Amino acid sequence: MNTINQLAVTLSRTLYDKDGKASQFKRHFTSLNTDATPEQLKSFKSVIEQITGEHFEKLEVIKTETIN
Fold first, then answer.
1. What Pfam families is this protein classified in (predicted)?
2. Strands laid side by side in the 3-16 sheet
């Protein structure tokens, strides 16, 4: 059975400057609960959006697993 050792999340959004040039802005969170469900991670994203006032377009989940 595989065991998740670490769980991290990257939230990203696209910013446009006055000339219309796009750039990526990302926030990365590590050491999250390895038992978190996708719904809980979406809720976490919503909380971060409320705290920062930013809107993130993408939620990436990064899992580190041990394969036995």
1. DUF1659 (PF07872)
2. 22-29, 3-16, 58-66
